[in-house]
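Writing this down once: the sequence line spells out the residues, with the fold written below as integer tokens. I am pasting one below:
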Amino acid sequence: MKYSLILLLACTTVGCSGNDSESHNAQQRALRNRTLALAYIDSGMMAEASDKLAELEIALPDEAFVYANQGVVALRQNKLEEAGTLLEKANVILPNQPEVALLRGEVAMLTGNFTQAETILEEAIMAHPENIHLRWARKVNIEHLRVIVDSIPENIVARLALIKELLKEENFKDAKTNLDVLLAQEVVQGEQAQGLFNGALAQIQAGQARVARGQVIGLDNVLKPTRAWQQSLLEVAGPPGTIGHPIRAFINTPIPQRLPTEIKTVKFTKDVTSIKPSNKKRVLLVESPEQIALVEVENQFACTVIPIDWNNDRKVDVLYGTTNGVVAIEGGSILLEGNGESIVALTPWDADQDGDLDVLVTRDSTFLLQNNGDETANIRKLDSPILKSTHIIDIDEDGAVDVVGIGQDGKLVLLKNERSGVINADYTVLPNVEMEDLTVGDFNNDGWMDIAYLVSGAAWIAENNHDSSFSTRRIGGSGATIEAADIDNDTRLDLLLSGEQLEIYFANGTTQTIDVAGTMQIVDADLDGDVDLAMSGTNFAIWHQDGTPAENEFQKIILEAILEGGQRNNALAVGGFVEVSAGGTYQKHLITGPLTHIGLGGHSADAIRIVWPNGVPQEVIEPVPNQIFTEVQILKGSCPFLATSNEDGSWEFVTDLLWRSPLGLKINAQTVPPIAATQDWVKVRSDQLKARDGIYELAVTAQLWETHFIDEVKMIAIDHQVGTEIFVDERFVAPVPPSYKLYEYNNVQVPVGATDQHGTDVLQIILERDNKRLGGFEKGPYQGIGKHHFVELNLGDIDPQLQIDIIAQGWIRPTDTSINVASSQGSSPAPKALEISVADGKGGWNIVIPNAGFPAGKLKTSIFEIPKGSFTTNECRVRIATNLEIYWDRIAFATKSEATVETIPITLQSADLGYMGFPYMTRIDDDAPNIPNYNDIRFGQAWRDLEGYYTRYGPVEQLVSGGVDDRYVIMNAGDAMYLQFEALDPPKDGYIRDYIFFSDGWVKDGDWNTVDSRTVNPLPFHTMSGYPYAPEERPAELLPSHPDWQEYHTRYITPAPFRDVLK
């Protein structure tokens, strides 16, 4: 009986009669479980993936897909033995299946069974000699490379690999022949590439195979960022990603990848009760899934009306433009005074990606009305022609939202968002097309935004080819304006042309005409799950779509950003995007307003992924119908983490590192401050680090949207007397950071009193480091910046002439570059560092440390040295004030100790770079930091990675030992550098041991406004004049021809896996 379901499913695919409904339902369940299992794998949720695969195993016990992906789940959790067993089970069902063979070979390699891996792959190649991916996995074999190059001669990756292997064998003739082919293919572009190419030829001529091969490796490195190289790699290696590529399709069960959707007959009926005269501009506002309102603009000169949440209060406003050039909020303020010229277009666009919506305005020019975040605006001029029909679009899927519009000559103009506030006009998209109107959307459901437009009234679609080019096809019809929506809820966008009548061109090939003319607003006016039409012509009326769709035909999505004390996105997430998979279908929509309508084609949504405008992803598997998605407060940048190994081998978070050296971080819209220090130090307590088998084990882990450059790590032990405490100052202070200094105290005392800015007694909160933190201050509009707050300490009866140090332990919730840009634009207070004052005995305060910086991350210690003589009376009170979101856990004070300490260097035995994944971040309350839980790790693609070279996995101690030398480990999100230090003998009697961990390097995050945040480059170095720097400054250690770029930095990473995760 175990074959009954398989036979039933197979029967339905070839047209068996009887039990069709039951068979269809079985197909639906199997497809849904397959889709959900893959969605959970892609989201890194391995336990949930295992559950779905277990359900599939019951239904399809002889399907190799099940066991292969169970093997992937085990592989990603580093359960190599279990992964091998499951993959062998898949291989028994269908021997030498190529995708399974690649996974089996990967497991064998990871377990060190290289001969077994070779056998697995060679046997699969014999069974499937045409399979390029299998041969590429054996690219060390020169004959396999020859076959690949013969099969796909345009592939530059394979040809470069072949050249390198030929030079290993000193086959100069064939190596030169293949280099000549590369030259003829015109892929060797640029001075650097040409120099390496010529160098390789010269060394071949001289018979220097090793040196020639080094030149070819350098050439390969230079070409890796090019589109031709990337496409070639995809062709031979398949989609990039993390360890273990899941298998996407059933292997030996004939179930269709997508079940058919019934063609729906659509009919619209005019709602006579909605008819209104045409004397006013009107717009329907969707305020919630259950509430909609019709707003009339009272200004008689209004000519353009759009919905927008201008002041970020989650309430949709109506923005209008007039024939005399005014732009204003209905019932609110005037944002732009008139100049007598009519407003042609208004488009909401967070152009500077700072978390509030700006407006692209066209009247006598096209310019940006920049939102200052305080209900005021500034005009920002753009290098743009006068545009009409402007729409936001992410044309190259890089996450930075662009705009397309039509110039006065009818040609399309792209306003390209280059990040960091830079916007450039581009005239190369469809340069030979003259159009009257346009709209945007993903018309072929491939995850890339396309453009639909009118030429002489007829509709055309230009499909994005993913390489800055478009393929056009004519749809037909006749209209003056064009819009797009999924009218029939079949998962595909349809076109609506409005002219003398309304013409609908459905994606399924059918058409419909409605006898109505005028401008249209496409909106679910009755909130029943299908879209309706609000038409403004000779009168205003709503045309309802007849019938009520079933629950599995649509999904309404409303996004709500966190605003109170954490603004990072505009309130309605305009400029973000939503992806949906349902029943084997995929679709992607750019968010342009308060509600995004998704047609599901009769299938329940399997997975929904939101990417918020600030780049943070949020995934929901098996979503409930028509839910509101509230932004999850996820930290996207905070530097690498330091963890120590417990006795059972698990990892425990200690703190974070390298806060002093962020690359490209802006403190306002223009300023990138210089990096004053790259060395960092943190205390590791004795209870946090225990030797195991003669080794201290630590890990530097990367979880956030960042690239880390680690030049040096080292550790020392500090043995000090029992009863004394030692600290280091773990603050960030600009422009001059504190130097390393060890503080030893034998008289740490607690204040006798402590009050906050409200006069509240907070002494019990700050007495111990017990996770009870001093919050209670009012949040500001932006994450990281609150209202002015302080803690006032009464030190009690002490000698005011003593040197007093304040020991304050706590953490800071940081801003980021985009928040700094936003907060600098309007009237919001600027971030203010800690300020330390002492009571003057007259009811006032004397500032003794005007710029005390702030804690450099999570769970940090700040030492404030009160200058001797600061206390002028016996009233020893200290005030610590700021407007930053700083939460104190413990505050104490002490005087300097004369106690002796012993400093002992600890030998680094090994450093290995590997893949860890993404620990879930948790916190115990709102005043606590997000801490990684290393016992609960997700695997997959969490961020839009910065593109470039990263260090390959394996030993890296040569890069992080031996001092600061600009030879460093380059870590990506999900990586971990595992460190082993030689354990010391126990401290002598009467002493206790703590540790100081040192690191040197830089951090670069992916924030849209961070300088050069798309790429790993420019690479940092210690003597650089600034960041970025002039190309000629780059030292030899960072050139592609340096040996490090042949041995270590060979892992090239792109954002493609993040972009394609749900596809």
Residues 441 and 1052 are 31 Å apart (CA to CA). Confidence is low (pLDDT under 50) at residues 1-18. DSSP finds 19 helices and 60 strands in the chain.
